[in-house]
UniProtKB/TrEMBL annotation:
<dbReference type="GO" id="GO:0030010">
    <property type="term" value="P:establishment of cell polarity"/>
</dbReference>
<dbReference type="GO" id="GO:0060027">
    <property type="term" value="P:convergent extension involved in gastrulation"/>
</dbReference>
<dbReference type="GO" id="GO:0044331">
    <property type="term" value="P:cell-cell adhesion mediated by cadherin"/>
</dbReference>
<keyword id="KW-0325">Glycoprotein</keyword>
<dbReference type="GO" id="GO:0007156">
    <property type="term" value="P:homophilic cell adhesion via plasma membrane adhesion molecules"/>
</dbReference>
<dbReference type="InterPro" id="IPR020894">
    <property type="entry name" value="Cadherin_CS"/>
</dbReference>
<dbReference type="InterPro" id="IPR002126">
    <property type="entry name" value="Cadherin-like_dom"/>
</dbReference>
<dbReference type="Pfam" id="PF00028">
    <property type="entry name" value="Cadherin"/>
</dbReference>
<keyword id="KW-0106">Calcium</keyword>
<feature type="transmembrane region" description="Helical">
    <location>
        <begin position="606"/>
        <end position="630"/>
    </location>
</feature>
<protein>
    <submittedName>
        <fullName>Cadherin 15, type 1, M-cadherin (myotubule)</fullName>
    </submittedName>
</protein>
<dbReference type="GO" id="GO:0008013">
    <property type="term" value="F:beta-catenin binding"/>
</dbReference>
<keyword id="KW-0965">Cell junction</keyword>
<dbReference type="InterPro" id="IPR039808">
    <property type="entry name" value="Cadherin"/>
</dbReference>
<dbReference type="Pfam" id="PF01049">
    <property type="entry name" value="CADH_Y-type_LIR"/>
</dbReference>
<dbReference type="InterPro" id="IPR000233">
    <property type="entry name" value="Cadherin_Y-type_LIR"/>
</dbReference>
<keyword id="KW-0812">Transmembrane</keyword>
Length: 800
């Protein structure tokens, strides 16, 4: 390569010399630069422009062992005017990967420092600079392209260590099986990466099952295909192929690989019964259990749909049997799904057929389906008695007569043995049963209103036992039909009707203890010979209206009404209805209170009402008399000389003393009597808050009476109450007269409000105490008898 580059330089110098010979103005100093930089022509006339370096791409072979190796030399035309220093920059120099190239800064020779690897870096782009000793650029930098040439230094490699494919058995030659792939790291544009595939070995699984070459491969694409017939999965399960790939079109470096090809199964074998006949036994009256299994053989691949069997029974009209497949063993499982009856049929002969889940291939032999014969023998056992119906249904009237036959022949024994009958549940004890024949009869009449009758059905349980001790039970459902046992009862039996109103009437209905259809609809009528002034108008199936047919006077009327039900036979009852004809207000109500009471549903007549009112009046009179006698007795029980506060009472007098909030400072508090009612406005104080609370009268001002002269002396009040309580009236009148004439007390029309102190006390009112009398005139010794609560008060009035 170095010789070729020097030759190119020589050719360039010669061409430049020929060109410069045609231009006499050029000096000899320009010949060398012209070898690297030809003149550029711009338009008409040859004008010299600044010259640039022109260097073709430099090709360097990878993995070269001649290192360091000179690649190219560059020169600047400034060498004739002064010293030039060359520098090189770019990947491989001062950029990653570093230290692959260098330049001689004096001569401009570029050389490689280490072997290159095209698979890592296939080219490098560098920039060269011509600098003055001071570092100044003498010319523009030039680009140097270095291309790394490929060598066949990489082997081809398969993409997988082992390739796996599948081909169906009996495939025709040329059937595509699979494709393999290999890669080469060398330059794909060269022969170094041109790959060629081949099969260099074949092994059958199992070994030596097939010896001829069964597969080929496309040497360019790696597609594997069948080359011959004879792929039978029952003979050979698969193949192991040894592959090879080589570059340089098969002449270069090589690598090996493996391909595993499995031969897949097709359904070319029909299942076959082995053996073809079976004998089994089954117990009667049992079901959902296995009685036996049948076997088949199939040469297809086990566990696939080509191998799995599907069974069917061709003569199973009654549906007593079914057959299923065991997924593990592929056996047919024969099962009884419907109870067998030994007495009806003691032996069953079944025909079974079998086939695969997948349809047979067209390459399979054309054979009929395999069949097998199964003989099932039924084993007899002692069966329980059977009932002809379950539950046993009986429909009877509730008023059935005792001894009536209700049901017979409702059970039988399949083994024709004798049966015993009994009733094990009969909560009302309405039934009887014959132990030998099983006839069910009524012991007594039924009752629809029994709590054991639900929705008109009474339930009992019977038990039947055969000679072998095997028993069975059944429910007896007796549907009771209602009979007409009770007549309807009219309601209400009293009411009122407005006088003179054609639309007014008494609404009647009826109550029947029977159930439909023995109850409603009800029919109402008035016998012709009992009343001619009244009529009954039917409203609906349960109600009617009782109305007068003529205008009647106000008063009480008794009307007889007949009500009948719809039973069979119909029952009826007469009832007397008390009707009050009265004048009504605008709301349709009677104006007379007495008439209203008499017309109420209570049904009270006028005589009873008078008796009740007289009794109440008598009780009130007796009560008033008792109160009067009690009051008189109280006054006569007060002892003379003991004061008004003491009387003969069994109750403690302290029970009648009430505690109130403090209203003053005792007897020395004279302001308590200065009730401010009238005052002179001219004497009003100027200071706010100087008034008696709630009165508006200034404090300290005595109220003035305008109905009496001022500053007159007060009259003398009676100071001692009379000893005899009968003189208390005179005592009170004297005090009242003195108060009316006293100008220094509040006016006579002042309202004085006292606290309520209860009633029933024999001590009388506290207002009767003569507070103005002297302490010597009053005997307070009785205070010592009132207990510790009044001890302090007794000590205050103790004469000692």
């Amino acid at each position: 390569f170095y010789i070729l580059e020097k030759l190119e330089d020589f050719v360039a110098v010669v061409c430049q010399w020929v060109w410069s010979s045609a231009e006499p103005h050029h000096s000899d100093e320009e010949l060398l630069p012209q070898a690297l930089h030809p003149w550029r022509s711009q338009g008409k006339g040859m004008v010299r422009v600044k010259r640039d370096w022109i260097i073709p791409p430099i090709r360097v072979s990878e993995n070269s062992k001649q290192v360091p190796e000179d690649l190219v030399q560059i020169k600047s035309d400034k060498i004739f005017t002064g010293e030039v220093i060359y520098k090189l920059e770019g990947p491989g120099v001062d950029q990653e990967p570093k230290n692959l190239f260098e330049i001689d800064d004096k001569t401009g020779v570029i050389r490689s420092k280490r072997p290159l690897d095209r698979e890592k870096h296939n080219s490098f782009t560098l920039k060269a600079f011509a600098l003055s000793p001071s570092g100044e650029r003498l010319e523009n930098p030039t680009t140097i392209e270095i291309v790394v040439l490929d060598q066949n230094d990489n082997r081809p490699a398969f993409a997988q260590s082992q390739f796996v494919g599948t081909v169906s058995e009996f495939s025709v030659p040329g059937t595509s099986v699979m494709s393999v792939l290999a890669t080469d790291a060398d330059d794909p544009m060269t022969e170094n990466a041109a790959l060629s595939y081949s099969i260099i070995g074949q092994e059958s699984i199992p070994a030596n099952a097939v010896t001829k070459t069964m597969f080929g491969i496309n040497n360019q694409t790696g597609a594997i295909y069948t080359r011959d017939v004879g792929l039978d999965r029952e003979v050979v399960k698969g193949f192991r192929l040894k592959l090879q790939v080589a570059d340089m079109g098969g002449m270069g470096l090589t690598s090996e690989g493996v391909a595993i090809i499995h031969v897949s199964d097709i359904n070319n074998h029909a299942p076959q019964f082995s053996p073809a006949s079976y004998s089994m036994t089954a117990v009667e009256n049992r079901y959902d259990y296995e009685i036996g299994r049948v076997n088949v053989t199939d040469r297809d691949d086990e566990g696939t749909r080509n191998w799995e069997a599907q069974y069917s029974i061709s003569n199973n009209a009654d549906g007593h049997f079914s057959i299923s497949t065991d997924p593990t063993t592929n056996q047919g499982i024969l099962t009884v799904v419907k109870p067998l009856d030994y007495e009806a049929q003691s032996e069953h002969i079944l025909t079974l057929t079998v086939e695969n889940l997948s349809p047979l291939s067209n390459k399979a032999p054309n054979l009929p389906l395999s069949t097998a014969k199964v003989v099932v023998t039924v084993v007899n056992e002692n069966e329980a008695p059977h009932f002809r119906e379950e539950p046993i249904q009986i429909v009877v009237l509730e008023s059935v007569l005792p001894g009536t036959l209700l049901k017979s022949n409702f059970a039988f024994d399949p083994d024709n043995s004798d049966l015993r009958y009994e009733i094990i549940r009969d909560p009302e004890r309405w039934l009887e049963i014959n132990r030998d024949t099983g006839d069910i009869t009524a012991r007594r009449s039924f009752n629809m209103r029994s709590p054991h009758v639900k929705n008109n059905i009474y339930t009992a349980v019977v038990k039947v036992t055969d000679a072998g001790g095997v028993s069975a039970t059944a429910t007896v459902a007796i549907t009771l039909k209602e009979t007409n046992d009770f007549p309807p009862q009219l309601f209400p039996l009293s009411g009122s009707v407005c006088k003179g109103s054609s639309s007014s009437g008494l609404v009647l209905t009826a109550v029947d203890e029977d159930l439909p259809p023995q109850a409603a609809p009800f029919f109402f009528e008035i016998p012709d010979d009992l009343s001619v002034n009244w009529t009954v108008v039917q409203v609906n199936s349960t109600h009617s209206v009782l109305q007068p047919v003529v205008e009647l006077e106000a008063g009480e009327y008794a009307v007889t009404v007949l009500v009948s039900d719809s039973g069979s036979p119909a029952l009826g009852a007469y009832a007397q209805v008390n009707v009050t004809v009265c004048s009504c207000d605008s709301f349709g109500d009677c104006k007379s209170v007495a008439g209203t009471l008499l017309g109420s549903s209570v049904g009270i007549n006028f005589l009873a009402l008078i008796i009740i009112m007289a009794s109440i009046a008598l009780l009130l009179l007796l009560l008033l008399l008792a109160v009067a006698l009690t009051s008189c007795g109280r006054r006569h029980h007060i002892k003379k000389g003991t004061g008004l506060l003491v009387g003969e009472s069994e109750d403690d007098i302290r029970d009648n003393v009430f505690n109130y909030d403090e209203q003053g400072g005792g007897e020395e508090d004279e302001n308590a009597f200065n009730i401010d009612l009238l005052w002179n406005p001219h004497d009003a104080p100027s200071t706010p808050g100087s008034f008696y609370p709630g009165s508006g009268i200034p404090r300290g001002k005595q109220p003035l009476r305008k109905d009496a002269p001022h500053n007159l002396p007060s009259p003398t009040y009676p100071r001692r109450p009379p000893a005899d309580p009968t003189d208390i009236e005179d005592y009170i009148n004297d005090g009242l007269e003195a108060a009316d004439n006293d100008p220094n007390v509040p006016p006579y029309d002042t309202a004085l409000i006292y606290d309520y102190e209860g009633e029933g006390s024999l001590a009388g009112s506290l207002s009767s105490i003569a507070s103005g009398s002297s302490d010597e005139d009053q005997d307070y010794d009785y205070l010592n008898d009132w207990g510790p609560r009044f001890q302090k008060l007794a000590n205050m009035y103790d004469p000692r």
